[in-house]
Amino acid sequence: MHNLLIKNLLKHTLMKKSNVLVLAAFLMLFTIVGCSKNDDNSTVTATPEPEPTAILKVTLNGLEPLSETYVYEGWIMVNGNPVSTGTFNTTTGTTIKEFSVLESNLDVATAFILSIELAENDPQGPSDTKILKGEFLNNSTAASLKTDSVIGNFADTSNPFSGSFVNKTPSDNIGNNDQYGIWFIQNPTAPTAGLINLPTLSAGWKYEGWVIFSGPTPVTTGKFTSASGVDLSSPYSGNEAVPAFPGEDFVQNLPTGVTGDTTGLDVVISIEPNFPTDPNEPFFLKPITGTQGPNTLSVTTDINVLINGTAVKQ
């Protein structure tokens, strides 16, 4: 009896082990089949084909290298929105750049614009300081790039520019040193604007007056946007009241080696990028010049002839 009980217990145990083994084998088979089935039905994401690109060839004449603070940046207008073609600097003379852009954008581009941007921490989109622009008219593949629509029109024959300045030092109230001051006015006793038909600049630009002292050392007379109204700074003037027009007295705090005497010196009015940084020399756009003596100013450089270019879709 005792032996029979032990035999039945062993038989029952073997049956349980057999069931466990069968169940384990079934689970392994299910897992293998399931994984295989999932692998067969898995979705493989195909790598999208890159969008085709095309070349925009831009030829630029008359540009000069920018300081390390700035870069040039090209833009195409696509459905009314600017799309960057890339940033660069340049050398003096003729620059040829080939930009690789999406073909779908270049096909519908209506214009090319060249702007000046901050080299670092530049906001998205073109700045107001645009230097060249041209349109692809009537589905043309070529655009002629000019300055007049994005800087100012200096070739307006219907309202030609003329200019003059006087030598006066109103800020120090001394009567025998008038050659130490340059003011863009007529008739010092009842001042009127000395810059007649001064072209209006686009928002991204300002005028700046300069006297070129020996060295040469250009010294600013201040930035301005209008022929009348005070300019934006008076770093070398005294403390007395001055005319409400652009100009400067060179009577204090002068750069090393500068006497302040303007006799016989060249006077320049440049066009400057409207950015916070301010180099101590004129930008290369210097359309208006004159000389102390005759004290007359004229447009001596047509910037639209000096600076131009083409943009061609290829």
Structural account:
This protein has 3 helices and 19 strands. It has helices at 2-41, 103-108, 303-306, and strands spanning 53-63, 70-78, 81-88, 93-102, 111-118, 130-135, 142-145, 162-164, 181-183, 185-186, 192-193, 195-196, 205-213, 217-224, 247-249, 266-273, 288-291, 296-299, 308-313. The strands form 5 sheets. A 7-stranded antiparallel beta sheet has the order 12-8-18-17-16-13-14, with no helix packed on it. It has a 4-stranded antiparallel beta sheet with strand order 4-1-19-7. A 4-stranded antiparallel beta sheet has the order 3-2-5-6. The protein is elongated. The termini are far apart.
Short description:
The chain has 314 residues and is of the alpha+beta class. Helix content is 16%, strand content 35%.
SSE string, helices as H and strands as E:
HEEEEHEEEEEEEEEEEEEEHE
How much of the sequence lies in strands comes to 35-45%
- pLDDT < 50 runs, ≥5 residues: 1-38
Rg from alpha-carbon coordinates: 37 Å
Spatially, the strands of the biggest sheet line up as 12-8-18-17-16-13-14
Quote the distance from N terminus to C terminus. 104 Å
Alpha-beta content class: alpha+beta
Residues in helices, as a percent range: 10-25%
Overall mean confidence score, pLDDT: 87
What profile does the largest beta sheet have? 7 strands, antiparallel
Q: How many separate structural domains?
A: 2
